[in-house]
Amino acid sequence: MSRAAGLRFLLDVSCVIIFVIVGRRNHGETTDAEGTLRTAAPFLLALVCAWLGSRAWRAPSALATGVVLWMATAAVGLGIRRFVFDDGTATPFVIVATLVLGLLLVGTRLPKRRIVRR
After folding, report:
1. How many domains does the chain fold into?
2. Do residues 74 and 81 make contact, with C-beta atoms less than 8 angstroms apart?
3. 54-63 burial by CB neighbour count: b if 16+ within 10 A, else e?
4. Could you give the CA distance from residue 1 to residue 52 in angstroms, rounded to a whole number?
5. For 25-55, what is each residue's pLDDT tens digit?
């Protein structure tokens, strides 16, 4: 994996962690390492699977890569959360998680796209 792909992967992991921390704070939960990692684990597992399955390292900053990672991370992460971790997947959470992960995983690729065009 190239250095750029490795950095992009770390940025994607950071996006998932940010999503979790903001969500936990909005619900009055602590942001300690244990709670944060427990909440993030399904989405981090899904993100790693998405990176491997889509070979995201080939075009890590591409918008299409971001869309694939977003959809897989949201869908698989919610599935893992529900069926493996036995945590809630209420409809409002599914909607918010999907939208926020999209904003973060796809949105962070938009500035790179603008810079490349110029």
Report:
1. 1
2. no
3. bebbeebbbe
4. 11
5. 998 988 899 999 999 999 999 999 999 999 9
For the chain, the distance separating the N- and C-terminal CA atoms, rounded to the nearest angstrom, is: 26
Instruction: Answer whether 16's CB lies under 8 Å from 44's CB.
Output: yes
Alpha-carbon distance of 79 to 64, in angstroms, equals 22
With 0-12 CB in 10 A as exposed, 13-18 as middle and 19+ as buried, what is 69? buried
**How far is Cα 117 from Cα 78, in angstroms, rounded to an integer?**
35
Domain that holds residue 62: 3-117
Confidence of residue 112 (pLDDT cuts 50, 70, 90): low
Handedness of CA 91, 97, 103, 109 (dihedral sign): negative
In this structure, what DSSP letter does residue 61 have?
T
Question: pLDDT tens for residues 51-84?
Answer: 999 999 999 999 999 999 999 999 999 999 999 9
Nearest to 19 by CA among 93, 117, 76: 93
